[in-house]
Amino acid sequence: MTQFTDLGLAKPLLKALADEGYTQPTPIQAQAIPGVMAGRDLLGIAQTGTGKTAAFALPILHRLAEDRRPAPRRSARVLVLSPTRELATQIGESFKAYGRHLGISVAVVFGGVKYGGQMRALAGGVDVLVATPGRLLDHLQEKSMTLEGVETFVLDEADQMLDMGFIVPIRRIVKFLPKRRQNLFFSATMPAEIEALTGEILNPNPLKVSVTPQATTVERINQKVLFVEQQRKRALLAELFDDASFKRVIVFTRTKRGADRVARGLEQVGIDAAAIHGDKSQGQRERALAAFKAGDVRALVATDIAARGIDIDAVSHVVQFELPNVPEAYVHRIGRTARAGADGSAVAFCADDERGLLKDIEKVTRQRIPSFDRRNDRHLGAATAAMPEPTRAERPERTQGGRPQGGRAQGSRGQGQAQPHRGEHKPKPNRNHSAPKPGHRHEGGPARAAEGQKADGYRGPRRRRRRGAGGGQGASA
Hints:
The chain is of the alpha/beta class.
């Protein structure tokens, strides 16, 4: 079996790898490192979590160590483009960790923070610059830096760049690069527009490395789809956290406001949660990630901006509160678990209006995801274990930390005794026989409509069951 010592890497790099506890390269590392060390261009097709950061960082650092010379002022010898701040930060940390015995300088540039510190870091030149496209273009237009000294250009997560609308900025950045350079191009999928971009950036006859078929999902991930009514999703999400195995969970939503609402809903039932999305400041995002890594919060609710920007070991579950509009994003979302050789689980909620999205996902990933219908307890997937609905009396209560306990959560009404739910009293008769006013208590009120189910188990107004609407018993909320 191949060892890192067999790849011809510089001794300081081998020492840093030993410090990290790494001895055997992953498939993409074993295939990519020798070619990149030899100076070839590379086209790498690899899912997130396969070790591709080291696949380009290690040979780049080796070449820098072999050719010691100062970086040009206000420029860099290596440029790595990343779609998100979080991913850029993690790539920068990887370069620093692997190059700790080489004396390599690394700078990370992204938006959401002031320019001053970044300009000072770039003034004397750096060996490795990791940047997001938007902020890098700002620096280039302000002439606070140039790319004339770049010897190696890395484009990471190219397909996410496409999804986020960065293709035009990338083409603009490439025009600032010198013609003679080494190019490393990484993408988890290869849609037509990305394939066209490779033809523009890569030199002829690049080394091609594909460690997994396009858009397949990691085999170690136990996947499941739960069919559920849209209005019951929050109750079902809270119910999942009754399972103690949901220790460190990332919950994905489509929108920023949706992420905030889901995080608040979890907090209301005693589950520590934090939201992360594009409207959060850099400080807020860093604090949320730090709390999640430290285990201070059990759930991190994120939009797709974090689908490839979170590299945290020991994520036990990924929950897709809403299915993504782009099928390939499903692969990147569930790739947040089962990292570093570990196993993981992914649960996706699917409402009736999302069935088309599920069909697209199964078509792209070439698999039938085991499914279970929470609306009427009808088992749909042979590979999925039955998930019986606990009664209210059987369901454990949650504490402020979200762990199942025997008693009521702190702040609940009463001391473990059954309490009537608000909204279940008999409404006063309406003398005008007109519709009740908005916010009337038996309707749940505007606050309940906006925030969903509360910790006391409120489900909203009782409605007469229509015959043939779903059949059987629905999920308890």
